[in-house]
Amino acid sequence: IPRPPNAWVLFRAFWVNKVKESNKELKLVYKAEQTTLSTLLSIEWAALPDDERQKWFRMAYEKKLEHKRLYPNYRYQPQKKVTSVRKNAVAKKAS
After folding, report:
1. Which string of b and e fits 33-43 if b means at least 16 CB within 10 Å?
2. Distance from C-alpha of 23 to C-alpha of 18, rounded to nearest angstrom
3. Number of Cβ within a 10 Å radius of residue 30
4. N or C of the chain: less Cβ packing under 10 Å?
5. Mean pLDDT of the chain
6. Residues 51, 4, 54: CA angle, nearest 5 degrees
7. Phi-psi group of 60: left, alpha or beta (phi > 0 → left; psi -120 to 50 → alpha; rest → beta)
């Protein structure tokens, strides 16, 4: 079950889709381009007027309520990632 998106995620997704629509001839958006786009959008996000930013927070709240309705027993439980060094140490102990 995916987590509900926060205000920043909604803002970024909106603008990424807008960029993709305006550049339909681009088939792939490379990771470096995504990083650059995120950097530029974070500057825009920081400069947003409060009323505009509140619009995104309201949308995020609505998404959160919808998520709660769809998944009433959902609880975020992050999983620890096992690094390859730790995997190797566990594998050596097992053998």
Report:
1. eeeeeeeebee
2. 9
3. 9
4. C
5. 85
6. 5
7. alpha
User: What is the tens place of the pLDDT at every residue in 57-69?
Assistant: 999 999 999 999 9
pTM for the structure as a whole: 0.72
Q: How far apart are the first and last CA of the chain?
A: 36
Tell me the C-alpha distance between 47 and 11, whole Å. 13
- How far is Cα of residue 62 from the mean position of the Cα atoms in its chain? 17
Burial bucket for residue 15 (CB in 10 Å: 0-12, 13-18, 19+): middle
What's the burial of 46, exposed, middle or buried (CB within 10 Å: 0-12/13-18/19+)? exposed
Distance CA 48, CA 57 (A): 12
- Indicate the helix (H) or strand (E) that contains 48: none
